[in-house]
Specification:
The protein is mostly beta strands. The protein has two domains: 1-100, Leucine-rich repeat, LRR (right-handed beta-alpha superhelix), CATH 3.80.10; 112-216, no CATH class. It has one helix and 14 strands, in the order H-E-E-E-E-E-E-E-E-E-E-E-E-E-E. The protein has one helix at residues 2-5, and strands at 12-14, 35-37, 59-61, 70-71, 82-84, 93-94, 103-105, 126-128, 148-150, 166-167, 176-177, 186-188, 197-198, 208-210.
């Protein structure tokens, strides 16, 4: 009881490489927790729902939690600005969103789609989806703060929408890139062997086109 009471003063909790950790206990008393790091907790199968109610939680790092299959949040998660799910190879469902998300790392081979409401993450600056199983992206045209998007080596990606600075190299099934925003400066399409059409590209002001590969 005393240990749980002391959680109220905890600001950072790092349990990285806790190989036998399968789940987290209730952290609802840790109201001042800002950083939670669970990297390489290879047996972790779930995280306690209480962490999604922590008002000051800003950073959640679950990289290489290979047994994690689902990550879903309650609607009152507002403070989270950084989420790392890279190499969570069995993660199949992802619905965690935050009004203040600035960086998302989602290099997960079994994730096929982002939540439909993901396009409303207006503060998002960095989105890493490289080597993921993403097949389609929701409209991201409202992500006006987006500075970097990486979907390289997404071999299953077939559909994308209006996007800022764009790297789609090695997306072998990608056929078209529609409605590129006028603010786009660089487009990487190296080794996109199925790419047939680039609409509104030439007219994009200041666009630099790198390594375009088209079919004959």
């Amino acid at each position: 009881m005393e240990a749980r009471k002391n959680l109220v003063n905890l600001k950072e909790l790092d349990l990285s490489k806790s190989k036998k950790l399968k789940g987290l206990l209730d952290l609802s008393k840790a109201m001042n927790l800002e950083v939670l790091i669970l990297r390489s907790c290879s047996m972790l199968t779930s995280v306690h729902q209480s962490i999604f109610s922590l008002p000051k939680l800003e950073k959640l790092d679950l990289e290489r939690c290979e047994c994690l299959t689902i990550l879903a949040s309650c609607p009152n998660l507002h403070g989270l600005s950084y989420l790392n799910l890279d190499f969570c190879e069995n993660l199949m469902k992802f619905s965690l969103i935050s009004d203040n998300m600035k960086e998302l790392r989602l290099r997960c081979s079994k994730i096929k789609a982002l939540p439909p409401s993901f396009g409303h993450q207006r503060k998002l600056e960095l989105l890493h989806l490289e080597e993921s199983g993403i097949e389609r992206l929701p409209s991201l045209k409202n992500l006006t703060q987006l500075l970097h998007l990486d979907v390289s080596f997404c071999d299953k990606l077939q559909t994308i929408a209006e996007l800022p600075p764009l790297n789609v190299q090695c997306c072998h099934l990608l056929r078209t890139v529609p409605k590129l925003p006028t603010c786009l400066k660089t487009l990487h399409t190296k080794n996109c062997s199925s790419l047939q059409k680039l609409s509104q590209v030439i007219s994009s002001c200041g666009l630099r086109l790198n390594h375009v590969c088209t079919t004959t």
